[in-house]
Amino acid sequence: MSVVSSTDQKYSSIISTAKELKAKKEAGVVSFSRMSDPITFKMDNLELDKNPDIAKNTGFDTTALSKKSKITYPKNEFMSDMLSSTAYGYSVNLAGFMGADFNKAAGLPENFKIHKSTLEEIANISQSSHLFNVFKAPHEQTKIYENIDMANTIKQYYNIFNQVVGKDLPNKEVYGIVDLSRLPTGFSSNGVKGISFKPLNAQAEKMMIDRSNEKVTNLYYPSDQVADNDANIKKLDFSPKSMSTDQNPSWLAFNPDMSPYQRDDGYTKEAIFMSFLKSAGHTVLDGGETRLEPEVFVRTSQMARATAKLLEKIKMEASILQNEPENIKNYIKFLSENNALDINKSDKETISSIFSLPDGNKIFKDMA
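The structure corresponding to this sequence follows.
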């Protein structure tokens, strides 16, 4: 069989295959991504670049086929999306770390690497531990935040962290156990805008706190004699154990993935910051562009106002009872006369104690 005859048969086969694929395409049974495969196989078998006679008889330009280096590939949209992915309005690189724009907004050093998964853990724990969700299953929870300004939250925490470890943490890439042992074990501070019902403040209405103006007033070290039950001291744990992911975390525990911050030769500043968050706070803070869902804000505001009114009522009633013991005497006499109260010595002492009444037992002198 001649070369031309063989070529004609193969060329006819190509045409037949193309027609068959076209018919299947129109019938909707051919995957577009695979349509060229059979034709490509047939063309490879022709070996056009090795036989100029075949190329001449079939009309193929082998020069164009051989110039593979000049082929232009279409833009890979998937890679483009990954390179330009965002979280909380800021760029994220391929390894999952927040970009330079986030660091700038959060007041972090340029070379500081905080992973997106950490921010997600902060958002998740804030959602799950909220008063409206704390006793609900995950699928039943209410969406708490309309928007989370994560850069603002991290900025507040990092500002406190810097005040706590700034003078004890040398500037280097990794730290050893000796470095960790020099860090404070606690601190006290002021300037926190906490929840207040008297007077009622914005933090109470949102059930959130603002730590943007928090100032560290004192640092405590292992050698300091500090009472364990001192509520004014925030305890810290910078132990190596605190810089690993807890495999069995307690309920609602802040447990970020620590693998992005781990090094074989020591502990990174980022890992130490994660340890600080575990001890000193890790929920979304009030400030910046953080907003509650409108429905959530309405509920929290109503609860705060009702609580403020209740506390005011309790205070007023307590004041009346303390300042008007005669009213108490008359009320108890009424109960006694109607056999609604069996008053004995213990009852007298208890009531007097509750209302801090001066000479309280005198109220009952005629009721023994």
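The mean pLDDT is 77.
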